[in-house]
Amino acid sequence: MIDQILIEQAHQRVAPHIHNTPILTNSHINNLLGAEVFFKCENFQKTGSFKARGAINSVLQLSDEQKKKGVATHSSGNHGQALAWAAKMAGVAAYIVMPENAPKVKVAAVKEYGAEVIFCKSTLEARETTLEKVMTEKGCTFIPPYNFDNTICGQATCATEVFEDLQNLDFLLTPVGGGGLLSGSALSGKYFSPTTKVIGCEPELANDAYASFHSGELQPAKEPITIADGLRTSLGDINFGYIRKHVDDILLCSEEEIMNAQKLIWQRMKIIIEPSSAVPLACLLKHKTHFAKAKIAVIISGGNVDLG
């Protein structure tokens, strides 16, 4: 069980290595929603996403023996980039299993950090079997992208920074794919801002977290095809345990709503975000009567988009 002390220790551990990313506002978006919205911009984080937090928190806790043999993971991109970066920082070899349809910009970034990329088919089963083979051959340590307490504690530091900077928040919204960011944010909310409601946001075409949350039973994703490539992974069972207990709701939005929200942020805030990052704003716009006059924080999860 992740307690307040573990999150505080993770925060101290990762702080020297990452950015305390800025929080931005936009008057046009506030007027559209009739609410006060604060965007925590993890698109400005090291490696371009919040995933740097969980990766460096995990790598810094490896034993000397584990560091000698290296680390491995499977990732559609952002966790792969983050682990490649964290491994390079620690002088550790990294092996990243990536689906063959991963965005080129993310594949290129993983390679630039010095990691070895191993491609597989775009299914969770293919990722896991390929990773198993790599680990058997190399003897390396698996650093899970989301379903792992060290990863969750690292991701929790993002919301911890939000609660340090903003008081009396009514809501905190994050995207949800595997559930590392949402579960970590919910735990931070429990310990540092218990009156804030934490909401997960998910595409309708990758709605396993929504289905799991509302049914009370973990339901794996079935080959999701959403534009939000970072949210195609199935919710982890460890993450689901924390989410069931500490998250207040999970909302859905359509592909068109995601694209419109991404375009709105690009046009009005003049920052580059990836489709997964637009999902919380898409949900806010869809359910704006529910959030009227509220003070809201939104975690923009990343900005690694293939501009081609």
Structure write-up:
This protein has 2 domains: 4-48 and 153-300, Rossmann fold, CATH 3.40.50.1100; 52-142, Rossmann fold. 47% of the residues lie in helices and 16% in strands. The protein has helices spanning 4-14, 27-33, 51-59, 64-69, 78-90, 104-112, 124-138, 149-165, 180-192, 208-215, 237-246, 255-269, 275-286, and strands at residues 23-24, 36-41, 71-74, 94-99, 116-120, 141-142, 171-175, 197-203, 249-253, 295-300. The chain has a 6-stranded mixed sheet with strand order 1-2-10-7-8-9, with helices on both faces. β4, α6 and β5 form a beta-alpha-beta unit. Keywords: Lyase, Magnesium, Pyridoxal phosphate. InterPro entries: Ser/Thr_deHydtase_PyrdxlP-BS (IPR000634), TrpB-like_PALP (IPR001926), TrpB-like_PALP_sf (IPR036052). Its cofactor is Ca(2+); Mg(2+); Mn(2+); pyridoxal 5'-phosphate. It comes from Owenweeksia hongkongensis (strain DSM 17368 / CIP 108786 / JCM 12287 / NRRL B-23963 / UST20020801).
